[in-house]
Design goal:
By secondary structure, the protein is mostly helical. It has one domain (about 1-285). The protein has helices at about 1-25, 30-50, 60-85, 85-95, 100-105, 115-130, 140-160, 170-195, 205-210, 215-235, 240-245, 250-260, 270-285. Helix 3 (about 60-85) crosses helix 8 (about 170-195) and helix 4 packs parallel to helix 7. The protein is globular. The protein starts with a helix and ends with a helix. This is DMT family transporter.
Length: about 290
């Protein structure tokens, strides 16, 4: 169950990242974040009301608040690092986010068997390679490296925090809803600042173009929500170390989606990374 849920998480996160990447070619990253999360919050709000999730209100929701504040900060740092480049360095380094939840699991007393330990090592190596690391070329700016590490820590912190934000299915819906509201507050504040500095909040073409992209934006937001939900369930039903590593295979999904939809050719190192990630997955699932 843990392996299946965590792999579903990586699939949805990978597709959400791919969709978000396509949308940021047409509008600002902040607009994508705020609009997609707002659409997801509307759906989650309806689900919370329908399931009576408000009854699960409690102090554990502070974990959801923290995840909702950290998430947009990590995402903005990641996008800024990608803009400074090179992406072949930024993307693999950001995938090191898995270290945070894995470290938390080990600190809480989890001790994976040797098969799973090997699987973790192989899978993480595969994820880093799947990003197509650039081992040659111009040196990377220190600011870019710092932003990338901030985003990696932030993404990992979200995984570690959201796991503790609920203890039931209805509580999970409420936690995800609270997380989205905080995402919107932080992202919306940053978007307001960006707009006041003269940057365009709407895509070229204005509201009609934004309206036409609403289905795609809704998919990105809902896929991200669903991924958070399946990750929480995976972490609650099995070892966090296993769930976190399998859920972190999403860069492989993004790379394969780009290959299938955009016809981008995978570099040799990416193909090798995808293969290693698959081997690591098998080891983790069988451990």
């Amino acid at each position: 169950m843990t392996a299946a849920l965590a792999l579903a998480t990586s699939l949805m996160w990978g597709l959400a990242d791919f969709g978000g990447g396509l949308l940021t070619r047409r509008m600002s990253a902040l607009t994508v974040v705020v609009v997609s999360q707002t659409l997801a919050a509307l759906v989650l709000g309806a689900v919370v009301v329908a399931t009576g999730g408000w009854s699960e209100w409690g102090p554990q929701l502070w974990f959801a608040v923290a995840a909702g504040v950290v998430g947009p900060v990590a995402m903005l740092a990641f996008y800024k690092a990608l803009a400074q480049g090179p992406m072949g360095v930024v993307s693999p380094l950001a995938s090191l986010a898995v270290v945070v939840p894995v470290g938390a699991g080990l600190a809480l007393g989890e001790r994976p068997g040797w098969t799973q330990a090997v699987g973790i090592l192989v899978a993480v190596t595969g994820v880093v390679l799947a990003g197509g690391p650039e081992l040659r070329g111009a040196p990377v700016q220190r600011q870019t490296l710092l932003l990338t590490l901030v985003s990696a820590f932030g993404f990992g912190a979200v995984m570690a925090l959201i796991e503790h934000a609920s203890t039931s299915i209805t509580g999970l819906f409420l936690a995800l809803f609270v997380q989205r509201l905080c995402n919107i507050a932080v992202g919306g504040g940053a978007l307001l600042v960006q707009t006041r500095r003269g940057a365009a909040a709407l895509p070229e073409g204005g509201v009609p173009v934004l309206r036409a992209q609403l289905p795609a934006l809704a998919f990105v937001g809902l896929a991200d929500v669903a991924a958070n939900g399946t990750y929480v369930l995976a972490a609650q039903h099995g070892p966090v170390t296993v769930a976190a590593v399998l859920a972190s295979l999403y860069p492989v999904v993004t790379a394969l989606a780009a290959r299938g939809v955009l016809k981008e050719r995978l570099r040799g190192v990416q193909t090798a990374g995808a293969g290693l990630a698959l081997v690591g997955t098998v080891l983790l699932a069988s451990g």
